[in-house]
Amino acid sequence: MRTAIYPGSFDPFTNGHLDVVQRAAKLFDRVIVAVAKNESKHPLFTLEERVELVSKSVSRIKNVRADSFDCLLVNYVKRCNARAVVRGLRAVSDFEFEFQLALMNRKLNGEFETIFMMPKDTYTFLSSRIVKEIARLGGNVHQFVPPPVRVALRRKLRETTD
Ligand code: ADP
Questions:
Q1: Is pLDDT above 70 for 28?
Q2: Taking CA atoms, which of 28, 82, 118, 157 is between 20 and 30 Å from 137?
Q3: Is the pLDDT assigned to residue 39 strictly greater than 90?
Q4: Which residues line ligand 1 (CB under 6 A)?
Q5: Which strands, in side-by-side order, build the sheet including 113-117?
Q6: Count of CB atoms within 10 A of residue 60's CB?
Q7: Which residues span the domain enclosing 140?
């Protein structure tokens, strides 16, 4: 069983993330989208909400499921018996941080590989941060996020402005 972990904040999950998941699902028997707690980033959505949104967004892909973790990524990878960590690369700007992260993870545990996947070109400009900004300013995000995320964003922003 070849398992890959796709870790991230997913605050919230976007069509760019979904594109990476779909590509990874073709290469591995099982893909776990692992939502990092990341309280220091002050996420808009709670950990439980982010996991639920990933879960709903990937429900049609049989070999993909959502989970969460609040420990060192390398320990989580080991616990899942995974062979690879998948990360997305949108542009050169992502490269430096991702490169550093991958090499540090290799130092901590050399038993798995980090694999980078490029999304479809139309998603290279997409980030959770931009999606939140557009939604906050009343823009339509339907082409950027899966339907459950669009609904949740609308509800969340209504709650926070009430
Ligand atoms: P993190 O806080 O770990 O960067 P994100 O949820 O922002 O979490 O991103 C998770 C992973 O998905 C990262 O590897 C990031 O580069 C990648 N990613 C984010 N947005 C996109 C996108 N539009 N297309 C492809 N990969 C993306």
A1: yes
A2: 118
A3: no
A4: 8-10, 14, 16-17, 20, 87-88, 90, 94, 119, 123, 126-128
A5: 64-69, 30-36, 3-8, 84-88, 113-117
A6: 8
A7: 3-161
